Amino acid sequence: GSVRHRFATWRGPRPEVDVAATLANAQRVAAYLYERKRIADHLRSCGVELVEEAGNARFVDATTVAVADGRTWTGDRIIIAVGG
């Protein structure tokens, strides 16, 4: 048999929601987002300027970084964190 859903048709047995796993995953995601915000807030309180999701970045000289949209940053210390 099949189960009709608003977005799709499933064939085979009716899917079951694992509520415990869903809640555990939601808690994991919430903890990750909280920690990420906590770290960002701490860095900002230390005077660090955070630029998130700026796209490709490149050093144009020893103290300047540019991103694709034309923005640039200059500083004695620049950290580019990628991935994650």
Tell me about this structure.
It is built from 1 helix and 5 strands, in the order ββαβββ. It is an alpha+beta fold and 84 residues long. It folds into 2 domains: 1-50, no CATH class; 51-84, no CATH class. The strands form 2 sheets. Strands 3-4-5 form a 3-stranded antiparallel beta sheet, with no helix packed on it. It has a two-stranded antiparallel ribbon with strand order 1-2. The mean pLDDT is 89.
Summarize the structure.
Helices cover 32% and strands 21% of the residues. By secondary structure, the protein is of the alpha+beta class.
**Structural domain tally:** 2
Summarize the amount of helix as a percent range: 25-40%
Q: Helices and strands, in N-to-C order? A: EEHEEE
| Structural class by SSE content | alpha+beta
User: How many beta-strand elements?
Assistant: 5
Report the sheet with the most strands, covering strand number, pairing sense and barrel closure: 3 strands, antiparallel
How many whole angstroms does the radius of gyration measure?
A: 22 Å
Strand arrangement, major sheet? 3-4-5
Number of helices: 1
Termini gap: 42 Å
Share in β-strands: 15-25%
Low-confidence stretches: none
Q: If you average the pLDDT, what whole number results?
A: 89
Q: How would you sum up the global shape?
A: elongated
